[in-house]
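Below is a filled-in request sheet from our internal design queue. Each sheet records the structural input a requester submitted and the sequence that came back. We keep these sheets so that new team members can see what a complete request looks like end to end.

REQUESTER: design group, bay 2
PRIORITY: normal
MODE: inverse folding
CHAIN LENGTH: 199
BACKBONE (tokenized):
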């Protein structure tokens, strides 16, 4: 039996997902090269079957809008998938060096810490719109967290002197340590505060 490891370096066998709500949505199936080329892109919700590392790579290529700053989805991030692939590999190297732990476990724990539980939607009642707190579905919790990781790292990279992999490693480590310097964790707390006031 072949023992597959992500990037042929890091094992996923000992990695544990502590949050039971996210267990089915964080795929830790061992894969040598986390890049399937989007072969199941037309199947709805199939992305949860992709490796969580591959989903992070995909999110780095298209991190989504941040407010009205549309430059985040164009110009800077149009490029080869291999760029995002090598960026994640270097990020995991930095995390391993700083923590002396399996970077996949650190990454999964960071996702659990930064995953939003509640958010705000808008409901219309009697011709007026009101904010309403709603529970966040498990798949959306993972999606939002990966997006915030990518946006937080890229936003600092545009204005900073360090390389993208260093900022992404810092973002993941801050979320892992529940430090509010993490963009993802600060966004989670902000969304939950808004939801709390909209009950």
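RETURNED SEQUENCE:
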């Amino acid at each position: 039996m072949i023992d597959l490891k992500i990037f042929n370096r890091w094992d996923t066998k000992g990695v544990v997902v502590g949050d039971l709500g996210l267990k089915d949505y964080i795929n830790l199936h061992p894969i040598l090269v986390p890049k399937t080329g989007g072969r199941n892109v037309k199947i709805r919700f199939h992305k949860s079957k992709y490796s969580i590392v591959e989903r992070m790579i995909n999110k780095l290529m298209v991190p989504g809008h941040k407010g009205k700053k549309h430059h985040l989805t164009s110009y800077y991030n149009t490029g080869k998938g291999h760029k995002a692939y090598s960026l994640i590999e270097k990020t995991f190297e930095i995390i391993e060096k700083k923590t002396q732990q399996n970077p996949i476990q650190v990454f999964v724990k960071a996702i659990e810490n930064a995953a939003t539980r509640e958010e705000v939607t808008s409901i219309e009642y009697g011709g007026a719109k009101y904010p309403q707190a709603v529970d966040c579905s498990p798949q959306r919790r993972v999606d939002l967290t990966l997006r915030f990781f990518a946006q937080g790292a890229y936003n600092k990279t545009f204005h900073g002197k360090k390389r993208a992999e260093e900022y992404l490693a810092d973002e993941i480590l801050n979320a892992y340590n529940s430090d509010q310097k993490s963009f993802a964790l600060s966004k989670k707390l902000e969304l939950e505060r808004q939801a709390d006031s909209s009950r």
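SHEET NOTES:
- The two ends are 53 Å apart (CA to CA).
- The domain at 46-197 is CATH 1.10.455.10 (Ribosomal Protein S7).
FILED BY: M.R.
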